[in-house]
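To the wet lab folks,

You asked to see what we're planning to order before we commit. Fair enough. Below is the target structure as tokens, and below that is the sequence we designed to fit it. If anything looks off to you, flag it before the synthesis order goes out.
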């Protein structure tokens, strides 16, 4: 893989700007889509389908996408996916059929899944190794600011227009993102043989990933741990709104404030990471960040009022920012650049598969158990997993360069 080394600072600014613009647009799209489906159906269950679609899309696309991502011009693929997603969003805004909206949303989620892996691989090639941890911290900050700004912009747009009209803003944001990406200096030259992607190629690539996993067991162990925490967070997130409003008795306004506090936690965590990242190992960020994230969830799980819930939310999102930065950097260091697309795609495939199963199981358990018991139980599992991971790392005394 050959990358131009000139003007890397400009490249980083362009990449971060592209991520920021598209992330704000994504939040506007997500909120608008939820409201549109709710208006059309009046059903919370119909809205919940939108939360399952990304995982199903990942299962379908990531079984084969990595084979293509590692062999294609990743910058061009990102631009194509940005424009394609914009077109589908513009088209979706024209329809009022829930079935059509689900179909378009599913196609967009498939492209999102491919884009995320492609973006990770592309930025790893472009950003030099010694700058990657700081770039990841800045990326986390940019994404978290979108988490705060996006819903605010969406609210303003809903005041002057309909949710369908607000979706156009995301389409425009994606076009602008593609425009910014077009200026990124990135000369692609794959070291993989150009072959037609078919079932045989995919089978060979899965074998290559299996061989990599077998020879790099600690890397896969860390990947497996972080994926487990992601699945646990998905399970908790699926209960979050109901737990906050029904069990804690928060109003919708208070719950909205709780979400904003969570966004501030990520922002502050990302800022500290950006300023101090050079002082910490990526593995330490994962180890200790996971423990305090789990503690934040426990505080939230045992909360009886808004104040304790807010403290728990801030702690978990603040420390989760450290985990995210550490894990991004860890993958960039431990996975060969030539295999990034395939390894990340295969791991994401299994993570999404387990995530869907977990959501279904939690949904079934809500029939027999109270929300408090479920949230407390999952939080305790999170804590035990985090301490178990830390103990294993200390026992094997792993040193990561």
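Sequence we intend to order:
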């Amino acid at each position: 893989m050959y990358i131009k080394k000139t003007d890397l600072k400009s490249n980083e600014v362009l990449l971060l700007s592209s991520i920021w613009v598209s992330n704000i647009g994504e939040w506007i799209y997500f909120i608008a889509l939820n409201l549109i489906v709710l208006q059309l159906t009046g059903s919370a269950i119909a809205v919940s389908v939108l939360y399952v679609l990304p995982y199903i899309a990942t299962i379908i696309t990531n079984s084969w996408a990595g084979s293509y991502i590692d062999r294609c011009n990743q910058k061009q693929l990102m631009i194509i996916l940005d424009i394609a997603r914009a077109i589908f969003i513009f088209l979706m805004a024209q329809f009022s059929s829930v079935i059509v909206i689900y179909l378009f949303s599913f196609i967009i989620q498939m492209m999102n899944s491919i884009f995320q892996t492609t973006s990770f691989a592309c930025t790893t090639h472009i950003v030099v190794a010694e700058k990657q941890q700081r770039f990841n911290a800045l990326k986390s900050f940019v994404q978290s600011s979108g988490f705060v700004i996006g819903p605010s912009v969406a609210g303003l747009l809903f005041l002057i227009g309909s949710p369908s009209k607000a979706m156009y803003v995301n389409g425009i944001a994606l076009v602008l993102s593609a425009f910014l990406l077009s200026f990124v200096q990135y000369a692609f030259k794959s070291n993989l043989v150009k072959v037609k992607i078919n079932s045989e190629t995919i089978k060979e690539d899965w074998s290559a990933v299996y061989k990599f996993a077998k020879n790099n067991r600690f890397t896969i162990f860390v990947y497996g741990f972080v994926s487990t925490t992601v699945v646990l967070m998905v399970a908790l997130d699926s209960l979050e709104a109901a737990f906050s409003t029904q069990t804690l008795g928060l109003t919708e306004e208070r719950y909205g404030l709780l979400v904003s506090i969570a966004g501030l936690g990520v922002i502050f965590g990302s800022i500290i990471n950006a300023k101090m990242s050079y002082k910490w190992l990526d593995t330490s960020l994962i180890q200790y960040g996971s423990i305090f994230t789990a503690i934040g969830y426990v505080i939230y799980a045992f909360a009886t009022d808004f104040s304790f819930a807010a403290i728990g939310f801030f702690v978990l999102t603040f420390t989760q920012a450290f985990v995210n930065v550490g894990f991004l950097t860890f993958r960039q260091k431990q996975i060969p650049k030539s295999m990034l697309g395939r390894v990340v795609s295969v791991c994401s495939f299994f993570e999404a598969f387990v995530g869907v199963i977990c959501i279904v199981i939690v949904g079934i358990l809500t029939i027999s158990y109270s929300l408090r018991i479920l949230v407390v139980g999952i939080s305790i599992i999170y804590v035990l997993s985090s301490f178990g991971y830390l103990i294993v790392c200390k026992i094997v005394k792993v040193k990561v360069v």
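Structural context that might help your review: Confidence is low (pLDDT under 50) at residues 1-8. The CA atoms of residues 71 and 192 lie 6 Å apart.

Thanks,
Computational group
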